[in-house]
Amino acid sequence: MAISLTESAAQRVQSHLAARGQGIGLRLGVTKTGCSGYSYVINYADDVDAGDVVFEDRGIKIVVDPDALALIDGTEVDFVKNGLNEAFSFRNPNVTGECGCGESFNI
Question: Scanning 25, 34, 43, 68, which has the fewest C-beta atoms within 10 Å of its C-beta?
Fold first, then answer.
């Protein structure tokens, strides 16, 4: 089981944690929503809750709720800039389909 970061994602998280002046890493999860079933939830982690699974990649801690891990195990998190738009993107090997707008996925 693992969640990984591209160099671009790691640099983005590192710079935002430094700007915030607090935090231990990135918190990644999912929520039921959208037309395909699930959507990614990404935030900065300030602590680790009991039961959380913690990975470390490129010097960044990635904190995952154990219930979400089955849906996102093996995911690579990237940070992409396209013109004026920039966002985290996810390469999840478990995904069997996505909605047309790319906001949700199913397993």
Answer: 43
Query: Residue 18's pLDDT is what?
Result: 94
Q: Which two tokens stand for residue 62?
A: 């990635």
pLDDT at 60: 94
Q: What sign results for the dihedral spanned by CA atoms 31, 71, 37, 43? A: positive
Please list, residue by residue across 47-60, b when 16 or more beta carbons sit within 10 angstroms of its beta carbon and e when fewer do.
Answer: eeeeeebebebeeb
- Give mean pLDDT in consecutive 10-residue pieces for the chain, a chain of 107 residues: 92 94 92 76 92 94 92 92 88 70 58
> In the chain, what are the domains?
4-95 (2.60.300.12)
Alpha carbons within 13 angstroms on the beta-carbon side of residue 6 total: 11
DSSP E strand boundaries for the chain:
4-5, 25-33, 37-45, 53-57, 60-64, 76-82, 85-91, 97-98, 105-106
Q: What single-letter amino acid sits at 32?
A: K
